[in-house]
Amino acid sequence: xxxxxxxxxxxxxxxxxxxxxxxxxxxxxxxxxxxxxxxxxxxxxxxxxxxxxxxxxxxxxxxxxxxxxxxxxxxxxxxxxxxxxxxxxxxxxxxxxxxxxxxxxxxxxxxxxxxxxxxxxxxxxxxxxxxxxxxxxxxxxxxxxxxxxxxxxxxxxxxxxxxxxxxxxxxxxxxxxxxxxxxxxxxxxxxxxxxxxxxxxxxxxxxxxxxxxxxxxxxxxxxxxxxxxxxxxxx
Length: 235
Description:
about 240 residues, alpha/beta, 2 domains, Nucleotidyltransferase, domain 5, 5-stranded mixed sheet
């Protein structure tokens, strides 16, 4: 049940052209509870941050005396080992971390951790056709991101932890809590119920329903379960 919400900041967009990680932030989640355990480090990338400074605000001068990845790799791997990772746009961060680990001949993320959960992919399934960056999701799920002026790995991991909990609320329990009968009421006594009122959808509402299903089908590449159910002939 242990998950680690993870984010990185980098010198650029592509590790294959030499870009490196400059910051790692991790937040521990156990049983859908933020435990308070965190891992955070800045890194000296061994190359200029260049234009990426405007994204994360970390200058060459600030990072000059920070440790190299090789100096912190053991404590970082110890923190994430065996946990499921929750990452927004996971392929980006995993690609950079696998590159850093590979440069040290260390095992990659797939062999170090459990499942990698991509919240960007989740958001696109929940909110097809909408903007799904971290700021948009904070607004959608009521997470306060007013302190986020620049990207920061630890701050973004903390925000993503709250967003992830909001996105998955209600999915982790299969139990239904049945309330005990109120005192003084006989259990099993039949009660008279008023007749149910059936409200039929209007033509305009049906057309709007069909439009939304078409949009979901397009975003999900034809995997809209509601449309599939409608197409199934009655037995």
